[in-house]
Amino acid sequence: MKPITLFQALLTLLTLVLLPLSAQASIDETINNAVAPIANAVSSVIFFSVPLGEAQLPLIVLWLIIAATIFTIYFGFIQFRVPALAIRLVRGVYDDPKHAGEVSHFQALATAVSGTVGLGNIAGVAVAIAIGGPGATFWMILAGLLGMASKFTECTLGVKYRNEYPDGSISGGPMYYLSKGLALQNKAALGKFLAVFFAICCIFGAFGGGNMFQANQAFQQVVVVTGGQASFLADKGWLFGLVLAVLTGAVIIGGIQSIARVTEKLVPFMAIWYLGTGLIIILMNIDKLGWAFGEILNGAFTGAGATGGIIGALIQGFKRAAFSNEAGVGSASIAHSAVRTSEPATEGIVSTLEPFIDTVVICTMTALVIIITGSLSSGAGLTGVELTSHAFGTAFSWFPYLLSVAVLLFAFSTMISWSYYGLKAWTYLLGEGKTKELIFKLIFLVFVVLGSSMSLGPVIDFSDAMIFAMSIANIIGLYLLMPVVKQEVNQYLAKIKTGQIKRMK
């Protein structure tokens, strides 16, 4: 991109956000009034819940968990058979620079992990434990382990049916394997419908849950640690959003290769940062670690939450895992599709690490910190990021500042990854082209500023619903294409076993 083009794009953004502050309230109110009825209707359908014991079970969570269980059984518990191979692939042992693709296995994994590791790992886990008790952690881990099979299925298909262009660029994901894969099964009309449905939902999800919500919550956390309502930034969300938009734009303008270069450095750093601070707290309370695991196991089967007992713990754990790692939603396969490989199964195998990192490791760390510090009692009445912040603050008063850094990193990483997901859905619907891509990226950056400066509850509800609506189309396709995945993985593992595929390093 020429510098003048980027300058013009950012100038347009600047013009849009520097509206009279008095007008922003009316814009906020207008958008809320316009979107609320639609958002509420869509959200009520996507997150329709049925009573189970004293708790409510969203059917979309059941849809994701059943699929994950079926894939786990159908592929012979693949997630437990290939972890060593997945690590070798991430290390680049079999990488061949001659293969088509734009990024390495590690870069693809880092991009996908950055899209799922977000505020849900910090705030969402706290909500799950506050409602379902410590036992929710057990079911969250189980759901994360099952979700590894869903990621394996969708990411194998993402590479199998991706589009490879003469300039070396790649477009892949559910839009392509739904349309191309089902067309080969004489289900072209169904495949096209599911692909378009998925793409539309993905775009709305990228603007909202993958962008506005992240920017809004990052701004709120910064305000909290800089003095609350007395903070200089308290009424300057637009300024925070503008700075964040410029930083985001500097990354996403360069496309997947630029995003991958950032995420391969950012993801390990933010994971070590967050897990390191959590580990310090656990070591300070090491004498309570056994008790904490006992609480998790007892709560999982006896129930100790605020509502629903054992059923409440199970539902909250499954819900958090599904909302955190997005296994079955299909979003991650868009990033994994850009990998440099000639074997689709390689990226399916690599992707099994993603729910493990996101849910089994990072979410569990959050849960342990909250439980082991006794914050469920000492922080009674707190929930979400406030409960997590309280737990971190029990070690040192300044630890919440470290948490704020994690919140900013997690939000930023989620935004840059979801910008790519939304872009690929956008170009699937409107066609490839630099101008079309620039238009999407500019709109995405505008939404960063809007998310920081406005309270758009209905918009967020709508976009969250869109993200999980993606799983409806995606999982239907995964069921129909399961035999293709089994064929791919069986022949790949056979090549590894017989030595047909040689180590490159």
CATH class: Mainly Alpha
The main pleated sheet reads as: 2 strands, antiparallel
CATH topology: Amino acid/polyamine transporter I
Structural class: mainly alpha
The topology string of helices and strands comes to: HHEEHHHHHHEEHHHHHHHHHHHHHH
Shape assignment: globular
Q: Let me know the average pLDDT.
A: 83
Strand share of the residues? under 5%
So, CATH architecture? Up-down Bundle
Tell me the domain tally. 1
Number of helices: 22
Cα(first) to Cα(last) distance is 35 Å
- Could you tell me the number of beta strands? 4
Strand arrangement, major sheet: 1-2
CATH superfamily: Amino acid/polyamine transporter I
Query: In angstroms, what is the radius of gyration?
Result: 22 Å
Helix content: over 70%
Sequence stretches where pLDDT stays below 50 over 5 or more residues: none
Overall description:
- With 505 residues, this protein is an all-alpha fold.
- It contains 22 helices and four strands.
- A two-stranded antiparallel sheet has the order 1-2. Strands 3-4 form a two-stranded antiparallel ribbon.
- Strand 1 (49-52) and strand 2 form a beta hairpin.
- The chain is globular.
- The chain starts with a helix and ends in a 7-residue tail after the last helix.
- The model has no long low-confidence stretch (mean pLDDT 83).
